[in-house]
Amino acid sequence: MKVKKIPQRMCVGCQEMKPKKELIRVVKNSEGEVSIDLTGKKPGRGAYICKNIDCLEKAIKTKRIERSFEMKISDEIYSRLKEELSNEE
């Protein structure tokens, strides 16, 4: 029987490779709108972050999410991400 490969993605906060299911996806669509993608199926450019507030703080401080999307990210998105992470814990 063939072993199923688990998709791995890199967290923009801690730069560690983790299984895709353990991460939260932030997506930028073709119109340039940034949103949180809990299903992982929305079309567009994705950036992944651990379900850990420390990783989010690190990504905000180093502007890694902004660099991934090559655009400024609004504070509203960051506050929604913080809210989502606090709900996870």
TrEMBL record:
Q: Superkingdom of the source?
A: Bacteria
Residues that span the membrane, as ranges = none
Q: What Pfam families does this protein map onto?
A: YlxR (PF04296)
The YlxR domain sits at: 9-82
By its UniProt entry, which InterPro entries does this protein fall under?
YlxR (IPR037465), YlxR-like_sf (IPR035931), YlxR_dom (IPR007393)
Q: What is this protein called?
A: YlxR domain-containing protein
The species is Fervidicella metallireducens AeB
